[in-house]
Specification:
By secondary structure, the protein is an alpha/beta fold. About 35% of the residues lie in helices and about 25% in strands. It has eight helices and ten strands. The strands form two sheets. The chain has a seven-stranded mixed sheet with strand order 4-3-2-5-6-10-9. Strands 1-8-7 form a three-stranded mixed sheet. Strand 7 and strand 8 (about 155-160) form a beta hairpin. It starts with a strand and ends with a strand. About 35% of the residues are buried.
Length: about 210
């Protein structure tokens, strides 16, 4: 069943944190070291979902704030002790003052935004000079190969509407990453060993970072 982004995330919220996810595992494995020191920094998570990156940043000593367009996702995040750090908002209209963030992250969400340039412009606006903006998403090669943004809930498979946005920015760094051996166990647990080798041939994750000047 194909659903809109907001409908899909409302349904997904209750089960989002259940079970391993190979794409999230790949992203976490590659970004943890690249986040660098965060103690004392102001960390904004745009489309924070259930708050997994907020928890990581808070654990490193950052002052965190998260926003998402899905109240159900934010409710799940609030149960993790993040209540008071969350707000309902769209990535294209961030309700935060200019230059308020030291690190702004948008994880696996840009593909749900109709105007990525507007969303990125908003992220740049709220990030201070010298601050970093980090964006990750499903790789364009994976989308071209037919990968979908889908999940299973109560026996039903839901595919979420999304947009394929080619990268069009000058970046500090870019990662084009494939699933690899560290993610094999997730496929084994899901009973999908047979598809692992094929899935590793296609870049799965696009991660980008630039510094505001």
């Amino acid at each position: 069943m194909r659903v809109t982004a907001i409908e899909g995330h409302r349904i997904w919220a209750s089960s989002y944190d259940r079970g391993p996810n190979p794409l999230l595992a790949l992203e976490t494995r590659l970004l943890l070291d690249r986040l660098g020191p965060l103690r004392g920094s102001r960390f904004l998570d745009v489309a924070c979902g259930t708050g997994r990156w907020m928890l990581e940043a808070h654990g490193r000593g950052a002052r965190v704030i998260g926003m998402d367009f899905c109240p159900e996702m934010l409710e799940a995040a609030s149960r993790k002790g993040l209540a008071g750090c969350l707000t309902v908002a769209d990535a294209s209209r961030i309700p935060i003052a200019d230059n308020a963030s030291d690190v702004t992250l948008c994880s696996f969400a840009l593909g749900y935004v109709e105007s990525p340039r507007q969303a990125i412009a908003e992220m740049a606006r709220v990030t201070r000079r010298g601050g970093r903006i980090i964006v990750t998403d499903l790789h364009p090669s994976a989308i071209a190969a037919g990968w979908t943004r889908s999940f299973r809930s109560d026996g039903q498979v839901y595919e979420i509407d999304h947009h394929a946005h080619p990268p069009a920015l000058s970046l500090d760094w870019r990662l084009d990453a494939n699933l690899a051996e560290p993610e094999r166990e997730i496929f084994r647990q899901a009973g999908k060993d047979a598809s692992f080798a094929e899935m590793t041939r296609i870049p799965a994750l696009l991660a980008m970072c630039w510094t505001k000047i």
